[in-house]
Amino acid sequence: MGAFANVTKIDPGLITTASTGFRIPNRTTRKMRLQKRGNPLDALIFHYNPTEIIDNKSVDYSDEEVDGVNVPSAVYSKGSPRIMPMTLFFNQFGQGAKPIDLSVEDSIAWLRASMEPTGQSTNPEEFETAPPILELVWREVFTCVLTRCDVTRTIMNPSSMNAVRATVEIELREVPIPGVPLDAVGRLEKMVEKAESTVGVGKLESLVQRGEKRVGIR
């Protein structure tokens, strides 16, 4: 079996030598990726699949108190987004001429750029810019934004001072899939409420009447 006679598989994306404990990629395994929504060519392919993926989801309930009842009824209030924290391991050290999709520093730069505003918005009612919407491609396509990126550089190239090995803690937050319309009436009501609080009810009614006259309704 050559140089890797003592090999123990520890997860689908990594194998480690029993003699040195050094982790190397399992090249036969499909690797997870993060990509920009709408542009799958702009993607970060993980050097290694995470050893574990935490997938958190919770919903809110309020108590409906009724006299004489020991346990109050649970009234559903709202849901919350799925939150997926994970640890990514990037490594070029000891790889030689083996192909790397993105270098360690380029991988870090890709993640950090995914937290910068781009002109998109995750909320159809918002007009300000927001960081790009991402897709985590694994057993499903998880539509999300990157909310945390903590980098630990562990080995540096002595000449360039660029990292050749790093551990990155990230957190992904679920967002609604763009293009799926929200309730139109609910959106309109929110827009009216916002306008009323901004310009006042009287001025808003005046603006509506002027607009109706302009288009021939009045």
Show the helix and strand layout.
Layout: E1 7-11, E2 14-17, E3 23-25, E4 33-36, E5 39-45, E6 59-64, E7 73-79, E8 83-91, H1 104-113, E9 134-137, E10 141-156, E11 163-174, H2 184-199, H3 201-214
Antiparallel strand pairs: 1-2, 2-3, 4-5, 4-9, 6-7, 8-11, 9-10, 10-11
- Integer count of domains: 3
Largest sheet, spatial ordering of strands: 5-4-9-10-11-8
Helix content: 10-25%
Largest sheet: 6 strands, antiparallel
Q: Give the number of DSSP strands.
A: 11
What Rg, in angstroms, do the CA atoms define? 25 Å
Strand content: 35-45%
Please state the overall shape, judged from the principal axes of the Cα atoms: extended
H and E order: EEEEEEEEHEEEHH
The number of helices is: 3
Uncertain residue ranges = 1-28
Assembly type of the chains comes to single chain
User: Whole-Å distance between the termini?
Assistant: 86 Å
What structural keywords apply?
disordered N terminus; 35% strand; single chain; six-stranded antiparallel β-sheet; 11 strands; 3 domains; alpha+beta; 3 helices; three-stranded antiparallel β-sheet; 218 residues
Describe the structure.
The protein has about 220 residues and is α+β, with helices and mostly antiparallel strands. It has 3 domains: about 1-30, no CATH class; about 30-55 and about 85-175; about 185-215. Helices cover about 20% and strands about 35% of the residues. A hairpin with a 6-residue loop joins strand 10 (about 140-155) and strand 11 (about 165-175). The longest helix has 16 residues, at about 185-200.
